[in-house]
Design a protein that fits this description.
The complex is a heterodimer.
Chain A: H1 7-74, H2 77-100, H3 104-132, H4 137-346, H5 352-484
Chain B: E1 13-17, E2 22-26, E3 30-34, E4 39-40, E5 49-55, E6 58-64, H1 65-69, E7 82-88, E8 91-97, E9 99-104, E10 112-113, H2 116-122, E11 126-132, E12 135-140, H3 148-154, H4 157-160
Parallel strand pairs in B: 2-12, 6-8
Antiparallel strand pairs in B: 1-2, 1-9, 3-7, 4-5, 5-6, 7-8, 10-11, 11-12
The chains are: A mainly alpha, B mainly beta.
């Protein structure tokens, strides 16, 4: 997981660890300083104050005793007032000392002081009361010596015990504070040493990790800069080639522009020619329309011829029927004539003349039959010719029909041609317009290509700069490598 | 038994034509010419007998002259256009021919007797040979056209009814 950490993260973790140790050391030092200060404050505020207060109480008591003696000697009220003031001061000091002491011994000693003070004050009040009377000096002195002084000594002794105890407590507290300071110093030194060790270890780890990571990164940077150099070289070459190609493209586009203009002129001529062709197609269409009407007239005439021919065929058929009758009659006449000839021959001399007539009749009948056959043949030929003519006429009629249809198709073709020519004209005009637009677009493209060529040159310059930057990056990587690996080349 | 032919008497003849030759029929033997009539075939008859037709109300055997002259080599002529009825004694016989050319006389000098070989082959109905308009002319004997056994066969009651 640590290998995946970034350089900054590792640095942050290392500095965070060192900062944590520093904070720990600071905390410990603060705690130690606070403990020492607290111990010293306690020594100063409690123990020293207790000693000082005990000394002050002693002083105040001495002054109170002195004031008492002064009153006893002079009976002046001001001494008595001083006595009362001293008492108040002592009482206040003792009252302030009570909360400061915490040990049982000190409290006991302080109570003893307070008790002896009260006994003394009671004894002093008795002496003062006695002095205020008319008692003798000696009795007062005696009262003082007997009652007051012992109380004063007891009070002083108790106060001395308390003072001794306070000084002892002061020494103990000083020693405890010294111990606390020593412990804190030791602890701070120990933690500081540990922090130094940890910092050295973290520095070593970070150094190794950073050396490894930076070395790897520098190697990557070196290889990348080498690749960048190669890419920049290739880019430079490509930019040069691109500039050359752009120049060629510019030349080609110029030629294309000239060609587009020629195409536009050609399209204009095509449109003019298509207009002429459309006029010719319309004229052809009118001619075809007239021809179509003529063909329709021919068709009507041909139909009339067919009708006449069919009538002729029917008439020929009727003639054929009549000829059949004539032929039949001729044949019958021939038979009868032959039979008459036969009969005439059988009649002998008497039938000879009749036989001659019969033979003539037979010959006439033969001639009639022959003529009928000839007429029949002619009629057949006529019918055949009529049939042929009818067929030919029908074929002609069909041809006329086909021709009429073809003329119609031709007319339709002419109209279609006229439409197509119109479309061609329109297309040619569109081509002309499009070609002009194309020429304009080509000019724009030419300008864009020129800009692209300029951009290619700038790209070449930029590639050179990139190459130089990559070289500088390579040198920088080498310097970095030297920084992290002094022995590296 | 073949009856010896009687010599032909000169006189007018009726010239008829078949598809192969011209035949001359003695005019006294000719009754009339007429159009072909419906003919009923008769079983057992020779091939040249086309059958029996009713002519002038009487049954008359019809002989196909072309088949007769070919000796049965030719089938009956399909182009028969005329019947020529002949008088054979009391009988009548009809010749089916292609055409009747007419009545005329024969130049006797151009006629030749029938050679013996042909005489045996053709029977007794061809009397002489000649030429007519560059065609073979056969002068026929009407009485010998149909053999007697045919006449007998035709005379059977069921055929004459």
């Amino acid at each position: 997981m640590g290998q995946a950490w970034t350089f900054g993260r590792k640095m942050a973790v290392g500095f965070a660890a060192i900062a944590g140790l520093t904070v720990l050391i600071g905390g410990v030092a603060a705690w130690a300083l606070h403990a020492v200060v607290a111990a010293k404050d306690r020594v100063i505020d409690v123990n020293c104050q207790s000693v000082a207060d005990a000394q002050t109480v002693n002083t105040e008591m001495a002054r109170k005793v002195a004031s008492l003696r002064g009153f006893l000697l002079t009976r002046e009220e001001r001494f008595l007032q001083e006595v009362r003031e001293r008492r108040s001061a002592v009482t206040a000091l003792l009252a302030r000392l009570h909360p400061q002491v915490d040990s049982a011994e000190a409290k006991r000693l302080l109570d003893q002081v307070d008790r002896t003070r009260q006994e003394y004050d009671a004894a002093a009040d008795k002496v003062i009361a006695l002095r205020k009377t008319e008692a003798s000096q000696e009795s007062v002195i005696k009262q003082f010596d007997d009652e007051t002084l012992p109380r004063r000594d007891a009070m002083v002794q108790a106060l001395d015990q308390f003072s001794d105890h306070a000084r002892a407590a002061l020494a103990d507290a000083r020693q405890a504070a010294t111990n606390t300071a020593t412990f804190a110093s030791t602890l701070i030194l120990t933690i500081s040493g540990l922090a130094i060790v940890l910092a050295i270890a973290a520095a070593g780890i970070l150094s190794r990790a950073l050396t490894r990571q930076i070395g790897s990164a520098v190697q990557h940077v070196q290889s990348s800069s080498a690749e960048l150099q190669t890419a920049a070289s290739q880019q430079t070459t490509g930019a040069k080639e691109q500039a050359t190609a752009m120049t060629e493209i510019t030349t080609t586009i110029s030629e294309l522009l000239a060609t587009s203009k020629q195409i536009a002129e050609s399209a204009q001529r095509v449109a003019q020619i298509a207009d002429d062709a459309a006029g010719a197609a319309r004229a052809g269409d009118q001619t075809v329309q007239k021809t179509h009407e003529s063909v329709a007239g021919i068709k009507r005439e041909v139909d009339l011829i067919v009708t006449h021919m069919l009538d002729l065929g029917k008439k020929s058929q009727q003639i054929g029927g009549i000829l059949e009758i004539i032929n039949e009659l001729a044949e019958q006449t021939n038979i009868l004539a032959i039979n008459a000839t036969i009969e005439a021959a059988g009649a002998g001399e008497a039938g000879k003349r009749f036989g001659v007539v019969a033979d003539e009749i037979r010959k006439l009948a033969d001639r009639v039959g022959g003529s009928a056959k000839e007429i029949r043949a002619l009629i057949d030929e006529i019918r055949s010719a009529v049939n042929t003519t009818v067929m030919a006429t029908e074929g002609g009629s069909k041809a006329v029909d086909a021709g009429a249809r073809q003329f119609g198709e031709v007319a339709a073709s002419f109209r279609h041609i006229a439409g197509l020519v119109g479309t061609i004209t329109e297309a040619a005009r569109e081509i002309e317009l499009s070609t002009k637009q194309q020429a304009s677009a080509v000019e724009q493209v030419n300008l864009a290509v020129a800009n692209t060529a300029q951009a290619a040159k700038e790209t070449e310059t930029s590639s050179n700069q990139t190459f130089q930057t990559a070289s500088q990056l390579t040198n920088l990587s080498r310097d970095l490598t030297r920084l992290i690996q002094p022995n590296a080349g | 038994m073949i009856t010896p032919p009687t010599p032909r008497e000169p006189g007018p003849v009726l010239l008829v034509r078949t598809r192969t030759c011209v035949a001359a029929l003695p005019l006294p033997s000719v009754v009339e010419t007429l159009r072909p009539l419906p003919t009923e075939p008769v079983a057992g008859m020779p091939a040249f007998v086309r059958g029996v037709a009713v002519v002038r109300g009487g049954p008359t055997p019809v002989i196909d002259l072309a088949a007769l002259l070919s000796g049965g080599a030719f089938a009956p002529d399909p182009e028969v256009a005329r019947f020529v009825t002949l008088r054979v004694g009391e009988r009548r016989v009809a010749l089916a021919v292609a055409a009747v050319l007419g009545v005329g006389g024969l130049d006797e000098s151009t006629l030749h007797s029938l050679p013996p070989l042909l005489g045996a082959a053709c029977g007794e109905f061809v009397e002489a040979l000649g030429a007519h308009d560059a065609q073979l002319l056969l002068v026929l004997r009407a009485a010998r056209l149909l053999p007697e056994e045919v006449w007998r066969a035709l005379a059977q009651p069921e055929l004459t009814r």
